[in-house]
Fold this sequence. Notes:
The complex is a heterodimer of chains A (633) and B (278). With 633 residues, chain A is mainly α.
Amino acid sequence: MDIFLAGLVGGSTYALIAVGVSLVFGVSNIVNFAHGSVFAVGAMTAWWLSGPMSLEFWLVAPGVVLITGLLGWAVYLIAVRPLRKAPGIAVLLATFAVGVILDNLSLRVFGAETRRLESAFPRDNFEIAGFRFGTLSLVIIGVSVLCVLALVVLLNHTRVGRAIRATSQDMEAAQQMGIPVERIQALSFVIASILGGVAGLLVGMYSSNVAPSMGFVAGLQGFAAATIGGLGSIPGAVLGGLLLGIAEAFGVSVWGDSVRQLITFGSLLLVLWIRPGGLLGRVPAISAEPMTGTFFGAGRPLRLSPWVAAAGTLVIVLIPLLASDYFLRAGSLIWIYALFALSVTLAGGFAGQIVLGQAGALAIGAYTSAILVTRFDWDFWPSLLAAGLAAGVLQVILTAPTWRLRGHYVSMATLAAGAFISALALNLPGVTGGSRGIASIPRPEVFGLSLGRATPMYLLTFAILAVALVFVSRLGRSRLGRIWAAVREDEVAAASSGLHAASYKSLAFGLGAVLAGFAGALYSVQVTFIEPKQFGVALSVMAVTIAILGGLRAPIGVILGAAVLVGVPELFRPLADWRLLIYGVLLLTLILVRPQGLWARVSLPQRLRPSRRRTGQPQGAAETASANEEVVR
Amino acid sequence: MSAPLLSVNGIVKRFGGLTVVNEVEFDVAQGEVVSIIGPNGSGKTSTLNIVSGVLAADAGEVRLAGERITGRKPHQIARLGLTRTFQNGRVIGNLTVRDNVLVGLDGFGQRNSWIREVPGLRWFSLLRETLAALVERRGAQRENDLRVDRQLARFGERLTPRVDQYAFTLSYANRRRTEIARALVPDPRLLVLDEPTAGMNQTETAEVLAQLLELKRQGQTILLVEHKLDLVMTLSDRIIVLDEGRMIAEGTPSQVRKDPRVIEAYLGTSFAKEHGNA
């Protein structure tokens, strides 16, 4: 009973977060990755107002509402509005960047320490039939119920609510009916952020500990809850939140705290397998969402002439003669990340599936090779091959039912698969060392040269990357590349030509996972210590970001993307505290300034394709193209 | 008499309370050209979508050459020899015209194609395709290129100068032509066309008519949805008339033209007068 109540309390806060996620998704068709950060800022604001400012609770709560509401508006203004004509994935990454910035700003403002947030309400002042509970639990459940009820009334019984619902069903039609769509979207961000902030306040009081870093995981749990319930459905988000909260409470009471994420993402995967639309959602099989189809339609990869390629390779190979070991270590890291991002190019650029769980494949690769090398004394090459194979096979099996789905659902399912794997690594101490990880992974010898030295490692990682690049480029120009293009741009037309879209999506993803597995094996050699924490969602997003900034259809672009996103923050390593903040700002700037990628040129505006309109794609390729053109000028 | 190539038996499709296709049944014999006409919203395209597997029927069955295809996936039906075009010209914008038509061949001609329908086992086929793609040489598949050229040549000088241009640069009419070529290139047993002349002017429509007549002469079986009645009357062996999801008439062009129900629901009296059947 205690556990059930704890689950209900936890679940109602998840529900609050999930409702915010669902509202924003419903109105703007955006997965808002900054949501968790707003939640954390809510919690930190509550601590600051009640601690250092020593305000009373009745002043703290409105303060939190005000600040998180303003933040929601800011997120909309910075990350969403400038990209309203860009493809969904650009907005997703922009919100992620804002999340990173928010987390790290909050770290600077409030400090990194975990703070103690005093509850304004007693925790165990009631007792009924030997079962103790406090006003606090009642307040949390009560406030959550009130917030959701208020939202339901707002949506269903007011003019603003009708405008919100109209916008969520058909943005263009709503606009033509005179609804200020942008203001409505901004409003949905404000409301969602307030709900997130309130959840932060409540969770903070319940656990009495708050820290700026608590947001990301909470945000993911909110996504999981919203997707379990059915994206865009408010009752679904509530149901998903409660179910998740209760399942977690029971799981944690039996197996301990480390299973939390395993349960979250395990149940998310399970729901997407069995009921792809979520519990209360409609099956999204018919409508294509803007993340599928042509994205960055106007950006076309630049052609690299063989001479330039040869010259570039020569320069890269000769660098070790001049550079310091530190530089070369950074260089091998860049090549590893580039290889890792290449896996996204395959699935995302070729087959059009934005996969957000590639850290899972990287983790499988890293663990497989580390285990084989440390425990079974395998040589480098066989362990590398095994790493790729294991990553490919496991990821394909985990995501097998996913490929019937499209758009955001593919992203969420792959995200869940990736996070599930890293949670699994945490919970299998016998195999993976659990939270202690695997330390002192030996650096093997290759062709008689120790990879402990910087130059051989640099050259080896580059050689593997170069081979992978040649492979991927060849695939892109082959019959398979053509099939992927057809599947990416029009699944129905592809199927009517006898092509089984799901098979080819799965193939692109599986081949990508093999590459990520190779990258994982190299990563374990490079860093010599691996633990589950390293393979979080942030790393998956990093892979997508590198691939996109490089130009999603241009395999060679990953070099550029990795150099910018891995290399530049390396330059700022001395400013350790500011490094992530700089990464966030860099990411946001790049997305806003060059959404079609670095390695792409912009071609003639595309014509509005009628097929896109019919499948419910709100933005035609033409708009994307002209938006991109403007950006470039 | 041998079994018809396509036989549609009592198919029904409901969207919520609305029955868009209601007990439609007809046959298409080998070598025949059959058209479906009717007012907007009468269920023509839904019928085609059910036949090609894009929509699942709520009742009834469809057979292709005696084999039951209801409930099969669109790609399976395509591989059985039924290819189609769409009302609005669905080409792959970021592929060239040649590649667009080659896509029409990509689903065909693989060995052991049954293996591709078994989850798990299909990976044997997929990995073989991957290896083949890695060693593939541009221009090695002369035979396929020739087949594509043959289809493009149907449209005279319309597409041949544009084979290497991206499909998104094409005019609307050329997208339709590319799509028809894509559907024809695997030599389908049944070609299904959804309004092939939509958005075309009179000259272009006349051209398409000539091309379709040529196809018919070559023995291609065609199932067609079309609004332009002159084209339908000239081309079709038989016509099926739908209204509000029901079949209200079926017969040769001259029979349909005289049918009073058809005149009332669709043709209108002026059309009937013009064609001397008043």
